[in-house]
Design brief:
Helices cover 85% and strands 0% of the residues. By secondary structure, the protein is an all-alpha fold. The chain has one domain: Methane Monooxygenase Hydroxylase, Chain G, domain 1, CATH 1.20.58. It is elongated. The termini are far apart.
Length: 87
């Protein structure tokens, strides 16, 4: 445990930010999982409806600095490819 006041504050701030990042990443994984379940079930209209929401969740994670923009573009491309294969 740190002794210096600023170091103590950093520990508290980092814990708080870690929890926020974890929540954002968890929500992102849940959204992607919903989309993939719709695709795997062959449910075209459900997958088409969920795709914009999933892309929005990925973009939101990038804006908040949880994932890198290249990682996000890679994920979006894979999801688009799966959606196109379904059609």
């Amino acid at each position: 445990m740190p002794n210096i006041k600023s170091a103590k504050k950093r520990v508290l701030v980092i814990e708080k930010k870690t929890m926020q990042n974890k929540a954002i990443k968890s929500a992102l994984k849940t959204q992607v999982k919903k989309f993939l379940e719709a695709v795997n079930a062959g449910n075209k209209e459900e997958a088409t409806k969920l795709y914009p929401q999933t892309v929005s969740a990925i973009d939101s994670a990038v804006t908040k600095g949880v994932i890198h923009k290249n990682n996000a573009n890679n994920r979006k491309a894979k999801l688009a490819k799966k959606l196109a294969a379904l059609n």
